Amino acid sequence: MEATRRVLVVDDEEGMRATVAANLELEGYEVVEARDGAHALDLVRQQRFALVLSDVKMPGLNGVETFRELRRIQPDLTVVLMTAFAIEQLIEEGIGEGVYAVIYKPFSMDHLMRIVARALGSRGVLVVDDLPAVAESIVAELKAAGLRAEAVYDGHTAIQRARDEAVDVCVLDLAMPSLDGVKTYEQLRRMSKQITVIAMTGDAAPEMIHAFTSRGGYACLHKPFDVRELMHTIARARSEPGTC
């Protein structure tokens, strides 16, 4: 089977690991199991994986430390963290360094399978702003943290890119000429319900923000914002059942 369907499951709890692996295999994935972080690193040195599902709280290397080492071996590796504990500092570090999503135990296997399918089908984040310097700056910071991202500068191009590519998340300025953010969002949603749209604005009218959120827009960030806030919003959107 191609590496694009190969998933590594890392969990020190054998029962949990086996349950996740069995469900993934039923969905047609090739699954390899690792009993801890060190074992996962050995496996990734031997073969390529498309996705790693890793528990956070493990003896030896925790899930975030494992994620960091895995990324050194395979920089483009997509990692989803699983946790039953509210280890907020660790989770924040992982998200700030490019973890794809965090899923909290107990979770339904249907929910996990949706996240896996989304992660494997994703080509990253599309940033749309009519000010190229703003769009490129956000993309540069997302890429520096290990996320896949690209910039476009108007709504029409955003719609075309979403049509041509498997866009996962669209970060969309609301106040743009020609085709504003709300109209762009409406067209994106008509094209695919799978795209999560996060708005950003520095000067959009309150009515425009309301129009975006009332139509189902995921969140609206107010400029200037820390890109870590955006990364947390992206990871949260990818992790929630209603957005997969």
Walkthrough of the structure:
This protein is of the alpha/beta class and 244 residues long. It folds into two domains: 3-121, 3-Layer(aba) Sandwich (Rossmann fold), CATH 3.40.50; 125-243, Rossmann fold, CATH 3.40.50.2300. Helix content is 46%, strand content 20%. It is built from ten helices and ten strands. The strands form two sheets. The chain has a five-stranded parallel sheet, sandwiched between helices. The protein has a five-stranded parallel sheet with strand order 7-6-8-9-10, with helices on both faces. The relative contact order is 0.10. The model has no long low-confidence stretch (mean pLDDT 91).
List keywords for this structure.
Rossmann fold; 46% helix; 5-stranded parallel beta sheet; 244 residues; 2 domains; 10 strands; single chain; alpha/beta
- Which structural category do the helix and sheet elements fall into? alpha/beta
- Strand order in the largest sheet: 2-1-3-4-5
CATH topology of the largest domain: Rossmann fold
Helix content: 40-55%
The helix/strand order is EHEHEHEHEHEHEHEHEHEH
Oligomer: single chain
* Helix run count: 10
Give the distance, in angstroms, between the N- and C-terminal Cα atoms: 25 Å
Summarize the structure.
With 244 residues, this protein is of the alpha/beta class. The chain is built from ten helices and ten strands.
